[in-house]
Amino acid sequence: MKRLPPWLVYTVLRVGLVLVLLAVLLLLGINPFWATGLAVVLALPISYLALDGPRRRFSQELAERKAHPEKFESERQPGRADAAEEDALLDELDTASPASAEPAETAEASAEQLPADGEQHSEGERP
Q1: How far apart are CA 26 and CA 28, in angstroms?
Q2: What is the pLDDT of residue 81?
Q3: pLDDT tens for residues 6-18?
Q4: What separation in angstroms does the CA of 66 have from each of 49, 58, 72, 77?
Q5: Is the pLDDT assigned to residue 99 strictly greater than 60?
Q6: What is the rounded distance in angstroms from the CA atom of residue 39 to the CA atom of residue 19?
Q7: What is the mean pLDDT of residues 97-102?
Q8: What are phi and psi of 7, to 5 degrees?
Q9: Could you give the CA distance from residue 31 to residue 19 in angstroms, rounded to a whole number?
């Protein structure tokens, strides 16, 4: 079974703590407006003490991401590893096949069809 990321665990636990505190305060008959504010304020020190382990794992993951961002690149941009392989393959194919050059006659013919600088086309002509 795949482990949940530490940021998700910590976030869910903090939100859950606020909701539990809010429910308790509402059951005690406190005004919902004040109960919400009090639940948020009380959740801060309680989560600091009670959620020490998840908070440390979360901060450790953040430090690892900052120190070694290449390890986490595939999580941030799914499919990017495949795209890098495809880019390398296309670059390899481009260098293997000669570039197609336009024949000189075709280039000269297309240059003759262009109007000289300052000339304007009549309405029936196309550039």
Answers
A1: 5
A2: 60
A3: 889 999 999 999 9
A4: 26, 13, 10, 16
A5: no
A6: 8
A7: 54
A8: -65, -35
A9: 15
Say if CB 56 and CB 6 are below 8 A apart.
no
State the DSSP string of the chain: -PPPPHHHHHHHHHHHHHHHHHHHHHHTT--HHHHHHHHHHHHHHHHHHHTHHHHHHHHHHHHHHHH-GGGGHHHHSTTHHHHHHHHHHHHHHHHHSPPPPPPHHHHHHHHHHSPPTT----TT---
Phi, psi of 104 (to 5 degrees): -65, -35
What's the chain's average pLDDT? 79
**Cα–Cα dist 90/86, whole Å:** 6
The crossing angle, in degrees rounded to 10, of helices 52-67 and 6-27 is 150
pLDDT at res. 70: 76
What pLDDT sits at residue 95?
Answer: 79
